[in-house]
Amino acid sequence: MTNFKKRIGAVLVLTVIGALFTGCNIQIGWHDRSDRYVVDDDGGTTPQTYYPPTAVITAPVNNETIYNITINLNGMANTGTYPLDSIYISVNDGIYIKIPAGATWSQTFYAQSGVYHFNVFATDVYGNCSTTNSITNIRVIK
Prior knowledge:
13% of the residues lie in helices and 47% in strands. It is mainly β.
């Protein structure tokens, strides 16, 4: 094969690849100083700022002792750019359970005597996740 045919073939391949990718919506983003996710997906105008949802556990608090088999886990969640969808809770790094999202939320757990920790995060309607919030060293004494 001559060098001319190789060059023509390479140009055609690059042209086809370029044509395929021009229709893509490629998003380029970064986190700013306030930990907001900034997206520049149109390449020419002011970038949009994306705010993820948030979720925190308000009760119990770290190092709390509970003299009951019932743990009432309470918390708050805030929408980000998009509406909240769900809250996910994990006990002692187990599987996450899904509960309905709201500005405030609660979930009751029945526990044996022992030490527990909880993780929680929120998702929005597009599946974006908050950072995980945790409480640790919750002692249950019967």
